[in-house]
Amino acid sequence: MLDRFISRFGKEKIAVLHSKLSIGERYDEWNKIREGKANIIIGARSAIFAPIQNLGIIIIDEEHDSSYKSEANPKYDAKQVAKYIAKQNNCPLVLGSATPDINTYYKAKELRKIELLELTRRANNSSLPEVEVVDLKQELANGNRSMFSRSLYQEIEKNLEQKRQTILFLNRRGYSTFIMCRECGYTVKCKNCDISLTYHSYEKKLKCHYCGYEENLVTICPECGSEKIRYFGTGTQRLEQEILKQFPRSKNNKNGC
Ligand SMILES: [Zn+2]
Ligand SMILES: [Zn+2]
Hints:
The chain is α/β, with parallel strands linked by helices. 27% of the residues lie in helices and 14% in strands. The two termini are 35 Å apart.
């Protein structure tokens, strides 16, 4: 980022702030900003506190990144601070991202509290990957009870045929399970934490791994009254097992799929 800006605007006009600078270097940069010698300040999260004299615009790139929230004391959210500073200085704040934070996107798209500016072409004009979102509730309604949507199944088949590899992402390790109604998609969640309860077969209880809340097994859906309540494993171990069952051809390659 720094190289790009220097080649465009020259080194003199740019100040940089990040935690890898020595105290001396940071002092020099700080003074450069304070004295108004730097017109562009580039930095990580804490750069939002730079002593800028005549602020014209704040740009937060990759705004969806959770690291803009500081976990260390004093805790702060750089995006919130930026919003405040922008207001005080009567200047625009740009939140840039190809994959915006769901909160930001909602505020722009639905609530219209943020002006939505969309780039219809990518910077290097390359084409966007084709993305298909599959509603698994719909798959169930159409009689597909497997873990894979028909579309995903076909694509994996195709890849195997062409001897190409497939990467499946699943954000749960182990054999973790959750309870879901096959009729309406309802999942049993913790009353306190709003996360899915895990089935513990030994005690025959549904437990919350966050707060310890537990309840008895659910056999009838509290949402629609259906008895088609099932517990599912969604962890990567179960996924691996299922892949081997559905695609025995992938067995030969230990890293495959
Ligand atoms: Zn809980
Ligand atoms: Zn239901």
